[in-house]
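To the structural biology subgroup,

Please find below the input and predicted structure for Leucine dehydrogenase, which we are adding to the shared reference set this quarter. The sequence is reproduced verbatim from the submission form. If anyone notices a discrepancy with their own records, reply to this email rather than editing the shared folder directly, so we keep one authoritative version.
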Amino acid sequence: MDIFREMQNGDHEKLVFCNDNTSGLRAIIDIHSTKLGPAIGGCRFLEYHSEDEAIKDVLRLSKAMTYKSAVSELAYGGGKAVIIKSNSCEDRDGILRAFGRFVESVNGRYITTVDSGTSMADMISIRSETRHVTGVPVEMGGLGDPSPITALGVVWGMKACLIELYGNNSLKNKTVAIQGVGNVGYHLALLLHKEDAKLIASDVDAEKTRRLGSEIDVKIISPEQICYQEVDILSPCALANTVNEDIIPHFKCNIIAGGANNQLSKEEDADLLHQRGILYAPDYVINAGGLIHVVAEYEGMKMENVYENISKIYQRIRKIISVSREKDISTNRVTNSMVQEKMNKLRE
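Predicted structure (tokenized):
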């Protein structure tokens, strides 16, 4: 991989490789942009097949965080971190504390938080080394788990799509297929159940679907089947690249609206959805609730401020859909154009 070329192509500011032999830490921090403010984004703790795969993941995700922050009108840039998990990962606290020291070393240009493979407990370890971390428990002055807030933002986004296609924003008796019922997907299912939606769900972890099925009325199917269901809404809430040119021709949904990051494999996939008449809620708009939540925590705001900002996702999605209809282009191209225009003005 030509790392500098990748950074130049994506307009990334700083890539930090972190190694600590004592704890076994191997991590990468990417600061995509600080034009709007300090970069903020989660820390993943996952296994990767190669270092190149980890680099590609952090570069892609950090850029998405810049876009998410910009479209959400937050005074922050985009960043991301990945801790490369190994089979011999025994000293988790030591690894996280070493990572916290690297976060501290960039002097507030990057603020970390919870992501795939990390938890609020992990943020406590990181916080012992740096104050540039959010997503800590309420008893430590935090705002708690951001997952329910991300899920609430997804519900607002779904309603914005529904009013466009159905003339009202009611989820009652609408069939929603949720791909992945981990943190966000689980809370999304609970919220949709309260809205009297009909639910179908899957997850690669059978324990997660068992837990959900014990709490609410939901049809559980295999992960291989979830994208082929005839539903009103398909909601990707697992990992990236689930919407791609191979699967799009087989979709039997009217709307795609989910909590996962980087749902599209590439930009052109949004064009294919548009051509098929499937309304896509751009992921970094609809799932911005978690970011709004951790920013509020970092700035010392209260939950009332969070709920007020989350509700704005509804109008943002409606505006994007309106422009998409007017220009006959995909919702994703509309959103990217809005962000790029905002970033270009900062360069002037």
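Summary notes: The chain has twelve helices and eleven strands. The chain has two domains: 3-62+77-140, 147-343.

Regards,
Lab coordination
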